[in-house]
Amino acid sequence: MKKFSNLRLRGKSETYEILVEDGNITEIMPKIPVICETEDLGGRLVLPPYVDPHLHLDYVFTARKQGNKNNTGTLFEGIQRWSDMKHVLTIEEVKSRARDGVRKEMLHGVQMIRTHVDVTDPGQTALKAILELREELKEMIDIQIVSFPQEGMYSYKNGVDLVEEGLRMGADCVGGIPHFELSYELGERSVHKAVELALKYDKLIDLHCDETDDPHSRHLELLTALAITEGIGERTTASHTCSFGSADNSYAFRMMRNLKKAGLHMISCPTENVYLEGRQDAYPKRRGLTRVKELFEHGINVCFAQDSIQDPWYPLGNGNLMNILDHGIHLAQMMSFEELDQVLDLITVNGAKTMQMQAFYGIEKGKPANFIVLDAQSEFEAISERAGVLASVRKGEFLFKKRPAAFEEKNAFFTV
Ligand code: FE2
Questions:
Q1: Count of CB atoms situated within 10 Å of the CB of 233
Q2: Segment 109-138, tens digit of pLDDT
Q3: How far is the CA of 166 from the centre of ligand 1 (A)?
Q4: Which residues are the active-site residues?
Q5: Pair type for strands 371-374 and 50-55
Q6: Helix, strand, or coil here: 162?
Q7: pLDDT value, residue 66
Q8: Which of 240, 162, 241, 150 is nearest to 197 (CA)?
Q9: With a threshold of 0.85, does the pTM exceed it?
Q10: CA dist., res. 348 & res. 50, Å (int)
Q11: With 0-12 CB in 10 A as exposed, 13-18 as middle and 19+ as buried, what is 357?
């Protein structure tokens, strides 16, 4: 039995205590009258761990590799650069990079990751590596794997078979990239196939969907329609949907209704989207994001993700979800004080819902004692200061604990 004391929870002004037994939360109250080992959290804000629902662990730290530089900064050159280099991958090399990527994310407070893994590789090197890594790290972090055909289900030889093989090998979700298929018709066929495979293997779906400024790229419409007719909206995610930010309002009006009806999950990757999209625009230059604010206002589950850590698509990225949130709320113009009270959902609970992990997630009695401690006392301070994570707790034990930054010297002006 262990107690965490002097902590703040979202939406509450007073401090609370959390009691943990056998790794689970058994009590949450302002004062718990139990004497046991106690960790004083200094009045800081405690959140459920950050969730990164869209990442490419097999690609991390490849941006500077020989011949891998993306000179145009476009999505399509990124895919080409990756295609050119992936034949040299080995399981150990992928695991080593991916492990470093997971470590970076965890040190920023992430405890759940959904990673897309490229299966357009007859040797399935990357998938084998990430499956092994997931097993190795399973006590510390939940990793969900998407069987993702980076070069297309129908545009890459045997792409559909490779996606299916990925599911049989242990991937949790069916992936796809309809806007990259060689024709719109092949893109639509890939959406149908993703749904068919998800039903056949009882898996989730997460498509890279309409990651383009082309307002005519509307695979989201078909994905949503199939999610409704098959009744699998809760299991279905559309990632990116950049074109939805360029589409006209009459299409968006109809789609909001259908997305809500389907219960579809939407993922936006603000730093990558703003970096990769708008590349063919002069001025005005589009932001490349989907309609995050409007989705949020319509009660459609939407969340933010990192997507890339130094790969051919994006030269930066370090797994810091607070940085992603900061960019996202600026780009989506979600900074009314009412919105600021809610936007932490975009990197926490909304991601957990997308991953269908909500039964094991949240600071509630009966759930695993998984949480993070921010260097802030309120949600507003956390966001405005882009507060760092001082500790990450998993099943009641510290994964890590940092000291807050301290001055070596300061004059009277800085003493408050
Ligand atoms: Fe992606």
A1: 22
A2: 999 999 999 999 999 999 999 999 999 999
A3: 17
A4: 211
A5: unpaired
A6: helix
A7: 67
A8: 162
A9: yes
A10: 5
A11: middle
* Amino acid occupying residue 7: L
What whole-number distance in Å separates Cα of residue 214 and Cα of residue 251?
14
104 Cα–ligand 1 center, Å = 18
CA 103 / ligand 1 centre spacing (Å): 19
- Per-residue pLDDT, 315: 94
Residues in the chain: 416
Strands 24-29 vs 16-21: parallel, antiparallel or unpaired: antiparallel
Nearest to 270 by CA among 215, 211, 230, 182: 211
Nearest to 3 by CA among 410, 31, 181: 31
DSSP characters for 295-348? HHHTT-EEEE--B-SSBTTBS---S-HHHHHHHHHHHTT--SHHHHHHGGGGGT
Mean pLDDT throughout 90-96? 97
Instruction: State the first-to-last Cα distance of the chain, in angstroms, to the nearest integer.
Output: 37
State which amino acid sits at residue 174: V
Ligand 1 centroid to 208 CA: how many Å? 6
Mean pLDDT in residue range 231-257: 97
Residue 95 amino acid letter: K
3-class secondary structure, 199: helix
Cα of 21 from ligand 1 centre, angstroms: 38
Q: What is the 3-state secondary structure (H, E, C) of 350-367?
A: HHHHHCCCHHHCCCCCCC
Amino acid of residue 59: Y
At 194, is the secondary structure helix, strand, or coil?
helix
Q: CA 108, 112, 114 angle in degrees (round to 5)?
A: 115
Confidence band of 415 (pLDDT split at 50, 70, 90) = confident
Backbone angles phi, psi at 44, to 5 degrees: -85, 160
